[in-house]
Amino acid sequence: MARKPIIVGNWKMNKLRSEAEEFMNGVEAHLTGEEKADYGIAAPYTCVDTCVKNAKHLIVAAENCNEKDSGAYTGEVSVPMLEELGITYCIIGHSERRTYYNETNEACALKAKRLLDSNIIPILCIGETEAQYDAGETENVIKTQLNGSLAGLTGEEVARLVIAYEPIWAIGTGKSADEKTAQDCCKLVRDTVCAMYDEATAEAVRVQYGGSVKPTNIKEYMACPDIDGALIGGASLKVDSFLEIIDATKE
Ligand code: 13P
User: Fold this and answer.
1) pLDDT tens digits, residue range 93-111?
2) pTM of the predicted model over 0.85
3) Sign (positive/negative) of CA torsion 92, 154, 147, 8?
């Protein structure tokens, strides 16, 4: 069965609620729900409710969650709390969280499991640093991150995931991975899932590329056989550029 492409904007720590509402209405006005791909945004916790209320066709994702349901974890937000708001996807393991907040592969595995138990689809981010890329360690990093972050998940669960390959050197740098590198790494993600599970799981899992994706380069990535969409930072913040991305990928 063909995989449905999925394109998600990651707003990171940007947008007030009023700005989120304006964005949702601006983009929704151009969607019919008949598009061939899934489109959505990942919003800061404070905007999630606003986004869900204004969403008609767009997916609304959270940018993080805690793996525990409740308790003495000051400042954290649990999956039941997000579930109550009506989100359907949640980013986990973003490189910014891995770097600044020590989010580990073990934490990703627990978060993924907890999200899936609530029928929320994890968007698991992985990717190597520039130093690792230069040292030829990309393959090793991808395999290690997948082995750790998928630990304890069944093939049926992994088949529902979105995995975003985001080389850290391409994030926010304007230095996007060339088409071949992006395709090769997304194929490596799929091959690793195949080795860990089976062919059917690998064929089902959706793999995104992320890192300086723009209206001008999205088409090249989408044409690659193992790339099923994109996770987009900077170019997802403005209605116009997000609409250009949608237009470039609609057919
Ligand atoms: P940019 O598109 O701004 O490079 O960010 C990518 C990213 O981190 C998406 O999660």
Assistant:
1) 999 999 999 999 999 999 9
2) yes
3) negative
